[in-house]
Amino acid sequence: MYNDRGGAMKRNSHTTDQTGFDYMTNKGKEEQDRDLCGLLIASFLILALTIIQYAGMY
Amino acid sequence: MSATITADYDVRRRSFLTSLYSFKEVLPGLLAMLYIAVFANNLPGVPNPFTLQNLFYWLDGVVGPLHHQPLFQLLNSNFVWNPLLLGLIIGNLFGVPNRWKRGLSYIHMLMPLGIIMLAPHFMVFQAAKLGVVPIVICTIFLFLTASLTLYTAKLLGLDDRHGAIIAGGLSTGDPHACAILMPLIKAKGGQVVNAVVCVIGFGLIAMIVLPLVGRVFGIPEPLMGLASVVGVGNGAQALYAAFGTGYEAGRYAVWYDVGRHVIMPAGFLYVFIVMFIRKLRNRHNPAILATRGIKRFPTWLGVFIFFWVLACLHVFKEPAHHAIFNLVKWDFSLAAAALGLSLSFKDITAAGIKGFLVTCIAGGLRIVLLLTALSVCIKAGWLTV
Predict the structure, then answer these.
(1) Nearest residue of B to residue A15 by CA position?
(2) B323-352 burial, b if ≥16 CB within 10 A, otherwise e?
(3) How confident is the model at residue A8 (pLDDT cuts 50, 70, 90)?
(4) pTM for this model (two decimals)
(5) Span A12-21, mean pLDDT?
(6) Given an 8 Å threshold on Cβ–Cβ distance, is B96 in contact with A43?
(7) Quick one: chain A helix, strand, coil %, rounded to 5?
(8) Least C-beta-crowded within 10 Å: which of A50, B190, B251, B366?
(9) Does A39 sit within 8 Å of B105, measured CB to CB?
(10) Radius of gyration for the alpha carbons in chain B, expressed in angstroms and rounded
(11) Does B190 touch chain A (CB under 8 A)?
(12) How far is A13 from chain B (nearest CA, A)?
């Protein structure tokens, strides 16, 4: 694993598990997929709450 | 190792939903975030009295008001920093179990989700009641402060990610902007929390200094309300500075605060766009780290802007706006818990005190320029008292 400057980086015990999965790393296709999930959920919630209001349901 | 993990994801991927992993894998982490969030904040729908927020309320009562402001509001206790603090304490005292880590990775989904849902919170035309000149002053000083901070950070050789996060927090007068900029700038968690400490620390100094400097410039009380909002920001800190000047200044600060609040998205969008263009122009410069890894304008940020435009057109009426903002509280509380767990105290202090120096120089310049601008406006008759 390398840091921003290309040097060797120690494993961060707070964020990295025994398989090397670092939960604070977010890049590549995985980042795009997470962004898409967030985008869809946010859009759904905003639109649902707004439509429900316009329909006079609360 | 990181590249291997990314490659593993590409092999395992079936659809975009693969990024959510299996329920069994993420449950421990999600529960950890949930418990930290509900014991940190009084979240909508959770009748839990044993929260950090209530503890701070109680301590506020013990200490008593400071220029009409609760102590922990001056220290910027809110639905983001309470769970972050609790996560930080738990992570540093007990560590973070490996089983939690898949679930904690949901922070990367929660950040764009929460930022998009913030859009209905900023209705620009709510500031129309202030009149043209105060709105122009709020807007000019938003962009000026961000530019000054970025330039000072460059002069002092501060990590550009750290400088950009400080620029966002200082210019908008809201440390939340630091967290909002985190996924856009690709800043480290330690840099974000360090930047928040810098912005809040500077605010504590500015809220005491501004009333004194304001008297030197001879700014009348109502306009010291505007000066506090623009020159200090950070909600309660601006009110402390204003009430420190006088009751009339405090009243006007409440009135003027909407001018700072509604244009806040312009501040963090400006910082992101400046840093993104800078990175595109210097693709092969290894010293430029801000926004590195972002190849094109993020789609979710475009969606945020779209909803912000709808908010400005008052598409989101009050009950829906409140319901959406309650979900934002939930979202950011969960994300902040994961961020707090990810950090050691060393990560926060590693950024050093250079960030604080940058904040003080840029913030100090803002106050001097602001009071000069207000004096000119008063003399020219553009601002009536």
Answers:
(1) B342
(2) bbeebbbbbbbbbbbbbbbbbbeebbeebe
(3) low
(4) 0.93
(5) 87
(6) no
(7) 45, 5, 45
(8) B251
(9) no
(10) 21
(11) no
(12) 8
Interface contact B338, partner A, CB < 8 A: yes
β-partners of residue A2 are A8
Residues of A in contact with B109 (CB under 8 A): 34-35, 37-38, 41
- Report, as ranges of residue numbers, the positions in chain B whose pLDDT lies below 70: 1-7, 385
Q: Is B319 on the interface with A (CB under 8 A)?
A: yes
Q: Which two tokens stand for residue B84?
A: 């972050």
Specify the DSSP element, H or E, that contains B16. none
For an interface test with B, the pick among A29, A45, A46 (most B C-beta atoms closer than 10 Å) comes out as: A46
Distance of alpha carbon B144 from alpha carbon B125, whole angstroms? 22
The whole-number pLDDT of residue A3 equals: 52
Indicate if the pLDDT at residue A5 is higher than 50. no
Determine the Cα–Cα distance for residues B259 and B142; give it in Å rounded to an integer: 11
Angstrom distance (rounded) from CA B292 to CA A1: 17
What confidence tier does A2 reach under pLDDT thresholds 50, 70, 90? very low
Polymer length in residues for chain B:
385
Annotate B118-165 with DSSP letters as a single string: HGGG--GGGGGGG-HHHHHHHHHHHHHHHHHHHHHHHHTT--HHHHHH
pLDDT of residue A4: 52
Domain ranges of chain B: 114-380
Q: Which of B196, B193, B199, B176 is nearest to B346 (CA)?
A: B193
**Nearest Cα residue in chain A from B95:** A14
Tokens of B53: 């927020």
State residue A9's pLDDT score. Answer: 56
pLDDT(A1) > 60? no
| pLDDT (average), residues A28-49 | 94
* Count of CA atoms in the C-beta half-sphere (13 A) of B68: 18
